[in-house]
Design goal:
Elements (H helix, E strand, L loop, with lengths): L1 H9 L17 H12 L9 H16 L19 E6 L3 E4 L9 E8 L2 E9 H5 L11 E4 L7 E3 L6 H4 L23 H8 L6 E3 L6 H15 L19 E6 L3 E5 L25 E9 L3 E11 L8 E2 L9 E4 L18
Parallel strand pairs: 1-3, 6-11, 8-10
Antiparallel strand pairs: 2-13, 3-4, 5-9, 5-12, 7-11, 10-11
Helix pairs in contact: 2-3
Length: about 350
């Protein structure tokens, strides 16, 4: 809670923007924990929507240590100081009006049950876009996978320069969703060598309409090869957070990339590590080319690359996000899949 005290002492307002490396910028997982602790149990029964909105925004200010403004501005996001928007939900249908999803913005989705605020999830726009199965985000970035002759390819032989100072061979592994720590992030060459044995491995096919569950089966295998004793996945980018590694299962040639391209220099939603703010282009990608007979998935090839080198191997498609009302059905278990439990939610 030192963030809250520091914000109180700073006398900044919610409208004073902060860089990601500011000591006052609350990391996403901690932001979620603070909001959960402070908002749970807040009564909002019987309030008109505008009044409820003001009550919730006022409570968020108090919980985070900001002074409550005399009048809330119509900003997007509502809380620029933490790059944070808030949505209070009595249903599982999230509606984002009159703007595109911002991949770097944090979205606090607050569940109201029986007139009481019960639980908060905080995820980035990039992660939120992954939940869209309605086709409203028709312009997500994509790339084409053209298989090579070799069964495995190390597309980038070295990590990006910012990452090179953080990698190491320390074998102690906690959880795959832990914040990365210097010295405990495997070099990209080690990731490649550890994942190559997965070629030829199989796992049950959960069905083409269960892509997330099929991906979870692959994630389990990847975690085992990387030395983790347990599996956890919060559905946020990158999949294996402590290794700054995104995992892609491909049973078709089209690679879905979400709202940010792998070569982007935009910061990734990971707190600075020893003063280094990692970017999307610093993340590593493990792409598994596979086939399925609708019963069993078989891994055929593996490609490992940095985001920086991604489009040197895979062909970029164009695309921009559609600017209209976006409706995203929140999946079953969404509000259980928080940073404390690390559970999977069903899409």
């Amino acid at each position: 809670m030192h963030y809250v005290k520091s914000i109180q002492q700073s006398r900044l307002t919610i409208y004073d923007a902060l860089p990601l490396n500011s000591p006052l910028y609350i990391p996403t997982l901690e932001l979620e924990a603070i909001l959960n602790a402070g908002l749970r149990g807040t009564p909002v029964a019987g309030l008109a929507l505008r009044t409820r909105s003001k009550v919730v925004k006022t409570k968020v200010c108090e919980v985070l240590g900001y002074p409550v403004p005399k009048r809330f501005r119509r900003n997007q996001p509502r809380f620029p100081g933490q790059n944070l928007d808030i949505y209070t939900q009595t249903s599982d249908n999230l509606q984002v009006w009159n703007e595109e999803l911002d991949p770097l913005r944090r979205y606090a989705i607050i569940r109201e049950v029986g007139g009481v605020l019960t639980v908060v999830r905080v995820i980035t726009g990039e992660a939120l876009a992954l939940l869209d199965k309605t086709g409203t985000l028709t312009g997500k970035y994509q790339a084409r996978l053209t298989p090579g002759v070799e069964l495995s390819e190390l597309v980038a032989a070295v990590d990006t320069i910012p990452m090179q100072g953080l990698v190491g061979m320390e074998m102690a592994k906690g959880s795959p969703i832990d914040t990365p720590r210097a010295g405990r992030i495997f070099p990209i060459t080690e990731i490649y060598e550890r994942l190559r044995p997965l070629i030829g491995k199989t796992f049950p096919d959960a069905g083409r309409d269960q892509e997330r569950n099929r991906g979870a089966a692959l994630h389990r295998l990847v975690c085992q090869e990387l030395g983790y004793s347990n599996f956890a996945d919060t559905g946020t980018f990158p999949d294996i957070r402590s290794e700054v590694l995104e995992v892609k299962l491909q049973t078709s040639s089209t690679i879905d990339l979400g709202l940010v391209t792998p070569d982007s220099v935009a910061p990734v939603d990971i707190p600075p590590i020893q003063g280094v703010q990692l970017r999307h282009c610093d993340c590593r990608y493990a792409i598994f080319d596979a086939i399925t007979d609708n019963v069993t998935v078989t891994i055929c090839k593996v490609y490992v690359t940095t985001g920086e080198a991604f489009f040197g191997r895979f062909t970029r498609f164009g695309g921009n996000v559609v600017n209209k009302k976006i409706q995203i059905p929140l999946p079953r278990g969404f509000f259980r899949a928080n940073s404390e439990g690390g559970e999977n939610f069903v899409v």
